[in-house]
Prior knowledge:
This protein is mostly helical. Helices cover 80% and strands 0% of the residues.
Amino acid sequence: GQSIGAIAQPLLTNMPAKVAAVWFPVAERDIATVICALFNPVGIAVGSIVPTIFVAPDQSSIRMFDLLLMETIVGAVVLGLVFVFFRDKPPLP
């Protein structure tokens, strides 16, 4: 599992500048890069907090299934939204 994350890390750390260069004018690229780059640590924080809410020591096996099911559903919904709404480039240059 960590190997897959390690392979994806260069893509995730270099992605904000690429997205900002394609989607935003020059005057807005810096702030777009910062906001996009902040999603990585915010996602890590949410990923550290949410499991502690779902998985309690007394019912860890049952709640762990609920946590994994919730993560799968959220991931599938987000992936579906990306496929439906994401474009390669903005409509206007």
